[in-house]
Give the backbone structure.
Amino acid sequence: MSTYRVAQVAAVGTPFEVVEREVPQPGPGHVRIAVDACGICHSDAVFVNAMVPGVRFPLVPGHEIAGRIEELGEGTYGGWQVGDRVAVGWFGGSCGHCTPCRQGDFVVCESLKVPGWAYDGGYAEAVIAPADALARIPDALAPTDAAPLGCAGVTTYNGLRRSSARPGDLVAVLGIGGLGHLGVKYAAAMGFETVAIARGSHKADFAKQLGAHHYIDSTADTTVADALQSLGGARVVLATAANSDATTATLEGLRPRGELVVIGADAEPLGISPNQLLMSGRIIRGHPSGTAQDVQDTMAFSALHGIRPMTEIVPLDQADEAYQKMMSGAARFRMVLTSH
């Protein structure tokens, strides 16, 4: 093909429009991917609304990409071949020379390349990505299942596996939406005694369907902290809800030396005092997404345990409608664009 389609926003506040562009050639160490599917993540709004420096318009968002390599740039390493099925997530490449990179901690690279920010993202029929951003998709995963695992999946999976929890420990997942529904599935598959926390008693059956052993209604008369303590106290709370008040309410539900792992983004501060941490040795930790290898591990674990994201699949032509549905909170639970 000599041209390809992208869904772009021309400026802040404008709707998505589908336009044609000339097909780009991958440079050294890069590949061109034919995009089969791309998840729509709430973090895309940060770039669409230019809430961070360096955003350039017209903007093509999308950092939950699944597709096939269709061309290799000169000097591309790693054993990649044309036709390989690959995913690119929030981790879209690293600089390789800053202090975190030199220490092997690539996901906190000081110049982290996020697709849709550092370069055009996956709301498109093709994308150019650096080879160090590629994760190999298992044969068992469809592109529409693999795409959301590049951000929502790896963030929840990695947040749990890098926590202090061990099989048999009580682990709570705050929120059972776009991130949380995967968090509950992963927690149960990892062997944790899994607690789902959400608003309303009507979500209890759904939480059990996801694999939760217990459900806590955060609107009930009993506080979330007291409910967790009645179960023995949580070793880990994975806070996926983008609500600082709800996150704060879980802290006293931790057992001594318990850990609050925060992955739900909210600009409001947490209402936590040092005294709540000191005597019980509690820990609060922010967790970023994960490297390409972490994404690959997430997909392999998901394939092994039959874990799939709950998705709504729409064509690229309906990118604006899909994005607006995600922003409204009506998506159940990940909107995914398909371009072929």
